[in-house]
Amino acid sequence: SVKGPYLFQCFQEAQDDALCEVHSKSFDNGVIDISNHRLLPHDLLSLGFFLSRPHRKWKELNLQWCHIGDDGMHILHQFLCRGKENKQEVTKLDLSSNDLTEASSDIIGDIISCLQPHTLVLDYNKITNLKNITTAVTATRKVKVLHVNCTSQDAAAISDMMTCLDELNIGYNKLGDHGAKLISKGITINTTLRAL
């Protein structure tokens, strides 16, 4: 996978493909791991340009603990959903621990529709309404593994969405008794869920 300072140098020098390849030989496996690096707006712009280049195929993007926030999601969105006709085959998108709020919910829903990742990790954020996200997951039926924090108001949507999933992680939730009952109802009609 591509990690650390070499990755940032590669982004900054992305105009020079040969130099970029020297710094990212392991990029061939399509994994970009920038976890635990605070990304500023200019870093996200460089990353966006790098990811959206037509010949640049990637399958995994790990942005855990990058503190990108809602503004950063707006920046990434314009690149991740650019050229929808050239869809990447994305296996995993990790946006956990990024201070994302409900303001990013629409954007994440659109990214799900564009990239259709197999695994989506959103836990440890501050998203209080998952409706746009669960709607996108249900509509695409491509996300099979979902990690997300949820509240009792999200329980019904999550319960309905469970028929699409193989694995659901809702740890550190605020479901309450009522929300737990709704999730239990979803489990009883689910035929695909292998892990909860």
What gap, in angstroms, lies between the N and C termini? 28 Å
Oligomeric nature of the chains: single chain
SS summary, helix count: 8
As a whole number of angstroms, the C-alpha radius of gyration is 17 Å
Spans of at least 5 consecutive residues whose pLDDT stays below 50 are 1-5, 15-26
Helix content: 40-55%
Largest sheet entry: 6 strands, parallel
How much of the sequence lies in strands comes to 5-15%
Q: What best-fitting shape do the alpha-carbon axes yield?
A: globular
User: What is the chain-wise order of helices and strands?
Assistant: HHEHEHEHEHEHEH
- What strand line-up does the widest sheet have? 1-2-3-4-5-6
SS-derived structural category: alpha/beta
Number of strands: 6
Calculate the mean pLDDT score and round it: 83
Structural write-up:
The protein is 42% helix and 9% strand. The protein starts with a helix and ends in a 7-residue tail after the last helix. It contains eight helices and six strands. The longest helix has 14 residues, at 176-189. It is α/β, with parallel strands linked by helices and 196 residues long. A six-stranded parallel beta sheet has the order 1-2-3-4-5-6, with no helix packed on it. The radius of gyration is 17 Å and the shape is globular.
Could you give a short description of this structure?
Helices cover 42% and strands 9% of the residues.
SSE layout and pairing:
Elements: H1 4-12, H2 17-23, E1 31-33, H3 41-52, E2 60-62, H4 69-80, E3 92-94, H5 105-115, E4 119-121, H6 131-140, E5 145-147, H7 155-161, E6 167-169, H8 176-189
Parallel strand pairs: 1-2, 2-3, 3-4, 4-5, 5-6
